[in-house]
Write a structure and sequence with these properties.
By secondary structure, the chain is an all-alpha fold. Helix content is about 60%, strand content about 0%.
């Protein structure tokens, strides 16, 4: 679809910007500015075309692109610029590297974990959450009057 192609092109542009500009303050500022502009466009566009992942609307593409660009700019700032010569690698950076090197495994695992949790009797019971809504939040996690209270089980 056209929005999916647009998202690929946005990602390509961001990659080109990083390769050409390098990890410096101007590049990070440019990426953050792009993220803010895309976020504002997504907000304005969602007034006419609601954000909807299932049909991959243009407003969804703008919003997710903005969030991804902001996250990437933050990582470039923290990893490449804030401490480029650090002796010790932070734990979160090592974990991120492991996930990046095993992206296909993580993708498959992301589909298996919910299935396992849904089928495990120790994770959920019919009294706690109906099978079609196994990820329901416990009542203690939702504020009184919240719309999420509809998932509560009667006492």
């Amino acid at each position: 679809t056209a929005p999916a192609v647009a998202q690929v092109l946005i990602g390509w542009w961001v990659g080109q910007r990083l390769q050409r500009g390098g990890a410096n303050a101007a590049t990070v500022a440019s990426l953050f500015t792009t993220a803010v502009v895309l976020g504002v466009l997504a907000y304005a566009w969602q007034l006419g075309m609601p954000i909807n992942k299932k049909i991959w609307t243009s407003s969804y593409v703008l919003l997710t692109s903005a969030l991804a660009i902001a996250a990437l700019a933050t990582l470039v700032w923290h990893v490449d610029m804030a401490a480029p010569n650090a002796q010790a690698v932070p734990w979160w950076q090592s974990a991120s590297e492991a996930f990046g090197k095993n992206a296909l495994f993580v993708f498959v695992l992301s589909g298996l974990i919910p299935r396992f949790c849904a089928s495990s009797p120790s994770m959920t019971t019919a009294a706690e959450a109906p099978s079609e809504n196994w990820l329901a939040l416990p009542a203690v996690m939702t504020p009184p009057g919240s719309a999420l209270r509809i998932f509560e089980t009667p006492s």
